[in-house]
Specification:
mainly alpha
Amino acid sequence: MTGWELGLVGLAALVIGISKTSVGGFAAMAVAVFATVLPAKESTAAVLLLLITGDVVGVARYRRSADWGLLRRLLPSVLPGVALGAVFMWAVSDLALRRTIGGLIAAMVLVQVWQRWRSRRVAEEAAEARAEVGAEVGVAVGRAEHPLVAVAAGVAAGFTTMTANAAGAVMTLYLLAMRVEKLRFIGTSAWFFLIVNVSKVPFSAGLGLFHPESLRLVAALVPVVLVGTGLGVLLIRRLSQVTFERAALAGSAVAAVALLVR
């Protein structure tokens, strides 16, 4: 591995750490970097171990902020998605894998942008109605409670996390749609990904994705991930809720582009 490649994966490991204690959607950019240096499928196993390192720190820091109601609705549908992703990885080429996941995330970003624009329009129309008639008009902009929403998000998260370690974008879009404030967002994501990523290890091992060279690289990068988690804690203290949501959505969009063009 050349010097510039080592620099790239070092920066990617730092981003993984930052994403685990602040804006989660950015981790998928690190996935794209690793896949440019290592074979795409092998890179998913290396990144997985670095993600678990960050997950442990995230849970230790934000374990009390998790929304277990959301987790109970999401987790049962994740394992089928992981199994489906493992079969998909076995059956398709690296290129098809990247394009599929990037396309799915891009579609979800567009849906989320449209939903947020529509919510603003509804709120503006309600405000105009109150001004005209002097009445209190309620606007429903809270959580989407239909159980199929959580099932679909869980399956999508399982599939994307197994195939490209890209479920951060799925969870980001789901939790933004649920209007989860930033600390509860991070705590819920931390527990979710620790549970899910640990469950993926046997699947990755079964596919033969853990190679001695990549394991040595992971061992060298673990301290970099830990530094990133510290930077993420400092960053999240300085982000407002609005800025946090915009950064998370932007991170998901960048991740989609990275997966489509790499």
